[in-house]
């Protein structure tokens, strides 16, 4: 994954947050969890440029570290916890089922029966739909966040149904070790 693609996700999430209606954003902020707190990113354009520059200039792919002058730094789970607030201990971020044909129907309704993938924009549209219940919209937001930061698949235009298993019980979100998954994705992404 190029540095630009990693950094570009920051801007995309910021724009997504801005597109949500004020009332829904307030509800999300009043009922937060570790993933939702990542939504309100400040200064994504500046941050994106900074991330690209740091990765391009200072990341050593062989050592998996950043070198600044003579100082060598590695990103650790503690760093992820401190910077993002994502839990680093808990249930592993893995799917219970390898195929979940009724996942989208369970959370989004009959229209999605039998679908195993949804277009990214379709899930965003559900999050933006003011006529849907709060919980359904929150699940859509969580799926978008998982796809952008936590466990993206290689097809950047669709979200797989298995991810629903991780977010459909919105009260259990913080029982997962999202920080571990994010760090794993980060290191994997830096190698591509």
UniProtKB/TrEMBL annotation:
<protein>
    <submittedName>
        <fullName>PMD domain-containing protein</fullName>
    </submittedName>
</protein>
<dbReference type="InterPro" id="IPR019557">
    <property type="entry name" value="AminoTfrase-like_pln_mobile"/>
</dbReference>
<feature type="domain" description="Aminotransferase-like plant mobile">
    <location>
        <begin position="50"/>
        <end position="190"/>
    </location>
</feature>
<dbReference type="Pfam" id="PF10536">
    <property type="entry name" value="PMD"/>
</dbReference>
<dbReference type="GO" id="GO:0010073">
    <property type="term" value="P:meristem maintenance"/>
</dbReference>
<dbReference type="InterPro" id="IPR044824">
    <property type="entry name" value="MAIN-like"/>
</dbReference>
């Amino acid at each position: 994954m190029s540095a630009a693609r990693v950094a570009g996700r920051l801007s995309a999430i910021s724009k997504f947050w801005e597109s949500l209606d004020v009332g829904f954003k307030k509800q999300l902020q009043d009922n937060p969890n570790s993933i939702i707190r990542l939504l309100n990113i400040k200064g994504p354009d500046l941050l994106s440029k900074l991330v690209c520059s740091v990765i391009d200039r200072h990341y050593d792919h062989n050592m998996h570290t950043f070198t600044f002058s003579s100082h060598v730094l590695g990103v650790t789970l503690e760093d992820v916890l401190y910077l993002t607030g994502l839990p680093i201990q808990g249930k592993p971020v893995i799917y219970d089922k390898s195929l979940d044909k009724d996942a989208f129907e369970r959370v989004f309704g009959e229209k999605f029966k039998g679908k195993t993938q949804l277009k990214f924009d379709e899930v965003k549209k559900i999050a933006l739909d003011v006529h849907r219940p709060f919980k359904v919209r929150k699940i859509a937001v969580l799926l978008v966040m998982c796809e952008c930061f936590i466990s993206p698949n290689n097809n950047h235009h669709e979200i797989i149904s298995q991810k629903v298993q991780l977010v459909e019980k919105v009260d259990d979100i913080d029982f997962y070790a999202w920080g571990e998954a994010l760090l794993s994705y980060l290191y994997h992404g830096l190698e591509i």
